[in-house]
Design a protein that fits this description.
Elements lengths: L7 E4 L7 E6 L4 E6 L1 H24 L2 H12 L15 H34 L20 E2 L16 E2 L6 E2 L6 E2 L11 H4 L7 E4 L6 E4 L18 E2 L2 E2 L3 E3 L6 E3 L11 E3 L12 E4 L2 E4 L11 H8 L7 H9 L14 E7 L4 E6 L11 E2 L3 E3 L5
Parallel strand pairs: 4-5
Antiparallel strand pairs: 1-2, 2-3, 6-7, 8-9, 10-11, 12-13, 14-20, 15-16, 17-18, 18-19
Helix pairs in contact: 2-3
């Protein structure tokens, strides 16, 4: 029932669609109000048909749905059976496929979310605690025991047993070691001796007369370098190739170092370019090749040759000291005008040097880094 405060009169004019008309007697106009009961019934009917239609789409074949829609068209009142209308059978199939895909995927996702959420509520999450135990066993004199088991709380000290061992493992003294296997062999030929690498030893004689000897220390008599521990036989006496002389802080090698094609000489660098870290650092106001033999000197042939001997290139001041005391060092120096390279560079492309004939040294440098000059290593 509709209540109207204004003075009205009811009219059933044009009331075919369940619409009640009211006339305002004061303003002489009609007020139209829908019938709420009929509207509610209409919505319920539409929803019912919607669910029926989509139920058929989800669980009935496209052919049955097409037949059902055709029957709908023959009804006198549209909406009594279905509200679908498609232009073709193919259009119906495409729409049915989309409806099924959306409905089933949405349902599966919702179910999965529900299961996950419910699972978190049902799973009993508990924290576990752990600890590490261990000890160092140094005594194995207790022997093998397959019954006794060590306990981490009471056997951390004094436990001497073990489960098992191989036959070649010896634990008789309480220590674990591999048992020795006795064996012996006899070699009477230098061929046998020379078949293996040797250290601190040399073979004298040939064939069955070959005898292996320990290398001799400095001062021992010798005829070849291989007989000496320092690999140098100097006038039939083993000697150290590095001589300590009046110049403090370093020893001088026994001879000049050089390449096979240029004996006694090397180039300072493979190119006339600047020397930078880590190969060079300042010494006496000049960039100098460092003494650290862990550095890569592959681009510095003279320095690399000294590195192979366990030494380094001398500085200009060290070369001047060697010149002043060259008679005190083993090994002749070239005094016919040859220039000895210093570890320092005089510029980007030149080096410092000392001439052993007169001690001359040009601080400006006239020798390029790629020039071949004498090399005497020190360490």
């Amino acid at each position: 029932m509709l209540f109207q405060e204004k003075k009205t009169e009811t009219s059933y004019k044009n009331n075919k669609n369940d619409v009640i008309l009211y006339r305002d007697l004061n303003k002489r106009e009609e007020i139209v109000s829908p019938s709420f009961d009929m509207e509610k019934k209409t919505y319920k009917k539409i929803l019912k048909i919607f669910f029926i239609d989509h139920f058929h789409l989800l669980f009935k074949s496209a052919a049955l749905n097409h037949l059902r829609i055709q029957q709908c068209k023959n009804k006198s009142k549209v909406g009594d059976v279905c509200n679908f209308n498609f232009d073709s059978y193919s259009q119906l199939k495409r729409y049915q496929k989309k409806v099924r895909l959306f409905t089933f995927s949405t349902s599966f996702t919702a179910a999965l979310i529900f299961v996950v959420v419910a699972g978190f509520q049902l799973v009993d999450i508990r924290q576990g605690k752990s600890a590490t135990f261990g000890w160092l066993q140094t005594d194995w004199s207790g022997g093998a025991d397959v019954v006794a088991t060590a306990n981490h709380t009471t056997n951390q000290n004094g436990w001497t047993k073990f489960f098992s061992k191989d036959a070649d493992v010896d634990t008789s003294s309480g220590e674990m070691k591999i048992a020795g296997v006795p064996d012996s062999f006899v070699t009477t030929s230098d061929t046998d001796f020379n078949a293996f690498a040797k250290t601190q030893s040399f073979v004298s004689g040939t064939g069955a007369a070959g005898i292996i000897y320990a290398q001799k220390p400095d001062g021992g008599s010798c005829t070849t370098n291989t007989e000496c521990a320092n690999d140098w036989c100097n006038v039939n006496v083993c000697a150290n190739p590095w001589t300590i002389g009046p110049c403090a802080g370093f020893a001088v090698y026994k001879e000049d170092s050089g390449s096979l094609t240029n004996p006694g000489t090397w180039t300072w660098k493979t190119a006339n370019t600047d020397c930078t870290a880590p190969q060079c650092s300042p010494v006496d106001g000049y960039d100098s090749l460092v003494a650290d033999n862990n550095v890569d000197f592959s681009l510095y042939p003279a320095r690399n040759a000294c590195k192979a001997l366990g030494g380094r290139l001398p500085t200009r001041n060290e070369l001047l000291c060697i010149y002043s005391n060259k008679a005190s060092y083993v090994g002749a120096f070239n005094t016919s005008g040859a220039l000895y390279q210093a570890s320092q560079e005089a510029g980007v492309d030149r080096i410092l040097y000392v001439r052993m004939s007169d001690g001359f040294s040009n601080l400006a440098g006239v020798q390029y880094k790629t020039s071949w000059n004498r090399v005497r290593c020190i360490k």
